[in-house]
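Fold sample X.
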Amino acid sequence: MTHPSVEDIKINSRGLRGTLLEGLTDPVTGSLSEEDQRLVKFHGSYQQDDRDLRDERRRQKLEPAHQFMIRVRAPGGVFTPAQWLKLDAIATTWANHSLRVTTRQTFQFHGVIKRELKATMQAINAAALDTISACGDVNRNVLGCSNPLQSRLHAQVYAWAQRLSAEFLPKTRAYYEIWLDQEKLADSGQEEDPVYGKVYLPRKFKMAVAVPPINDVDVFANDFGLIAIVDEAGGLAGFNVAIGGGMGASHGDPGTYPRLANVIGFVAPEQALAIAAAALTVQRDHGDRVERKHARFKYTIDDHGLDFIVAQMEERAGFRLQPARPWHFDHNGDRFGWVEGDDGRWHLTLSLPTGRIADRPGAPHLTGLREIARVHRGEFRLTANQNLVIAGVPAGDRERIDALVRAHALDQENRAPTALARASMACVALPTCALAMAEAERYLPDFNARLEPLLDRHGLREAPILLRISGCPNGCSRPYLGEIALVGKAPGRYNLMLGADHRGQRLNTLYRENISESEILDTLDPLFGRYAGEREAGEGFGDFLHRAGIVELPPYPTHRRIALELQA
């Protein structure tokens, strides 16, 4: 049997409708058709199954335990306390009693079954949120600096994340017809989309907006990035533009690789939407529509050459880019604890291990944040590092928030006793991700616990070393930007990657391939020892590994050039 290509499915989908309405009401199976599984991604959901149960269900001659992941669209990652409470209710009513903070500043729900998928979507809409374009071959959730209330500039930049997201939403009404039961109009299925056309993009497209000196969105890991440049009055002068970042790769396929974005020039604020549209449509028209593994913007740039792509963007935008302006990043992590904003309100950043918010023995985090949402008068802001900012707290409310944090073991000492653990990230991986080759989210707490004695031995408990774990090479946790990264190869076995920097400006390098936990720990122990004894003042672990000649820049010429440009 010949399976239709993804491109054919999109073209014939009638504006992303397919047979989703019919499939949702089919009581015979918990699954959607193969074609509809592709289309439902554009609506913000992935069909998955519980891989822990596969073998047993196969023995019982049952279909897999099908379930759906649902991802909310939330550019910049901002939620009101009322929205938080509604999302909490969704998690405890239809999902698996947890909220998952993603590496793209939004929430995912896991474990929703097909017959409750529509009710869940409608509940998300009732919270004044949606899931449009959270997945699929479109512009995904746009990242923005984590705390736009900290200054006037941050607030301006957050507004740009919102504008970029709204500008590039698909124009089809399929979402509203299928999930919200809105009336079909005469041209239903024939709507014109001036950006995406009928075929949408070759693959997903990711955007981010960064505010130096903090690169908390890992702007160079995105297809399109804006780096805010400050004017003399402290306002927004415009943006440096970066294109061509991406984390995905495949084991054993040298034609796929992670890549850092190129900074190609500067634009004034009023030019930002035009240059973003130019990047997206160049990828739409020139991206690979035959080989999906080779379909991201980074490969389009490397295949056609950066100069060609920039010239195409300038022609479509109708102006020439100005030379890039100076900027500097200090780090790509989050600052934990309290910080005061320009308006006198306070913001508390909490570390959330693996981004999973659930009630566990001795750690009732879901309940704790529910209680905080009931009294909080500001906002909740998710970070691209899977952490949480309780933002806009009046000075008089700090004591009450602190008390709830302590009472529900949300304080960092209870959750992540080392600086490395507080900053570590992992993708979901097993049991629900179909691509996972090894554990990530479920393994990260145990691995951090194994590292703790090594860090203590070498006096590195508070050394801000960046660890990331991915269950496969596709890189949802941005592992190739970790000073230490584990990339899954098989159950219990990982590639050990070393040497990225703490600014998000250098990729790491494969150091040991396909090794077990004990081999990983045996490898890291002497490296920690050398770092503790030989590091210079303020020197990061990744920077030390390079200075000491322990690792080298990644082998790809493009990456080497970009890394050197950024460091210069």
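Fold sample Y, listed below.
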Amino acid sequence: MEKPLQLVYNNEGKLQINTEALKVLQSIEVPMVVVSVVGAARTGKSYLMNCLAGDKSGFSVDSTVQAHTKGIWMWCRSLPQRPNEVLLLLDTEGLGDPEKGDTANDHSIYLLAILLSSILIYNGKNKIDQQSLQDLHFVTKLSKRIQMKAQPDGSDSWDLIRFFPEFVWVIRDLTLDMKIDGKEATPNEYLEYSLKLRDSESSEQDKKYNELRRCIRNHFPSRCCFAFPIPTHGKKLKQLQELEDKNLDKDFVKERQNLINYIHTHKKVKRVLGGQLVTGRRFVALTKAYMGMMADGVLPCVESSFAKILEVENQAAVDEALKFYDDEMKKFSEYNCLTMSALTEYYNMKSREAFNIFHKRSMSNSGKHIEQLEDKMSSTYMSLMVKIKEKSEEQCKAHLAKEMSSIKENLASGRYRRPGGFPELMKDLDKAITAYKEKTKNEIEGSAVLTHFLKKEKPRLDEIQKIDSRLMKEKKRISALEEEISRLKQEMEKMEQNRKAAEEQRNMEIVEQIRKRFEEGKQCSVEELKNAMEHMRSEMKKYKVEGRMEDMERALQRYKYLKMKYEEAGEWSFMKFIREHSPGISAALFTVVTVVAKLALFKSVN
């Protein structure tokens, strides 16, 4: 994207999505690091985002008292250090804009920032004090308006820790000396010092003081801080966007680069449930899902939004795979020589390629969509098979009529109804059948048409046999014809067996792709929970050092809950996954899945 686009705007009190922005996002097919910035109005959030974008002329910056950014603006930028990912910057409308007069707008904007981002930057001024913590508390309180599951079971707030964005506090225009107890401190140490709880909660003021910090610590266990000094002085501040680095405070330039390096190299890619990476298309589905829930007046639900993404992505994967398959099969249907063996070979090849396309784009829990894809491809295959049979039957009948024309004339004239007529008939018949078989050797209906003809003519042949004195000798010829018909039937059966074997092989490949996707998702979930446990263990240690035993106990309970989830995720087996999703998988494919799962289990045990 050369320039930012407005993603969300306010239309007569209601938030709307800009369709042009969605079109741009739809084209992004790689994972995204989504960075949102929040904070008070007119504090330089847009300037900060331009620094992360590496372009001064991106997000609009204004030095007047009037807030400039409205709604949410987006800008997609490349990450030179990570060519297979992109950086999506979300610049949000400032808190407390007097022109709005509507806190509901703030709620919705910042709720979206939390739900959509993988890294949340809070842009504060001057220092970390009670007021800035109060402003941030506004953001954390929004968590009460988010549901983890469609049917909450009481563990929502604990589970949300896993999906909350990483938190970065940026202090702008810091004038204080960064010292704690007379010692030099880092910005991270300053942040942790500011979030320490008071020993006593005897007064209401102390309770509010501690509750505010406790809420921030519980919701953002993964956090860091960057402290920017005043970049320059006097009227130059108004031209900050245009100033070269040589005209800025060197410590400001250094800290700005530290932040840029942190964001550009950080591994916090946006994910949804099951560890699924968020691409542009999935981000669009996620945004629509959350906006739809908010418009309907229901609590945004992580699980429900994932289900909608799942349906949209998997259906799109089916459509993409089917388009490829239908186009390829259409090419085949235009060939002059359509044979069953060629169709079967072509079908197996193209259906395998179609499934590869599906699995490349699809997400987990795609059983019903695999079934849908199989059914539609099979339907196309059967339609072509019927077409081939009809065309083959028509051509075979024409060949047979041509080769049998003289025999039919002789039968009608009674030529063969005489002594020695039957051997002559059989000789002519052998010659005609040989010629017919040569012309129809690649025709699927060749043997069926010939068999039908022989059965139809059998009464007349029997009559001629009775007339001819050498009936017994000629029975051998009829037997030979029957053997030939039997051989052709066996060839057809073998061809069908080969088709089924190829289909089973394809099913095995599909299962392996499902198993691989399952293992990847399991690994992501385990890693996700492990990180959440580490963050919570860190909070426990901090509470212990602060002497906050009750808070440490509460953190311990959260840690135990996350550990239980971690252990459950580690024990989650492919077999169990298949049993729970088997309603969306065909019986044949489910049988193959079960066999593969048991083999994988046997190998792991041995």
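Sample Y note: DSSP finds 18 helices and twelve strands in the chain.
Also: The radius of gyration is 37 Å.
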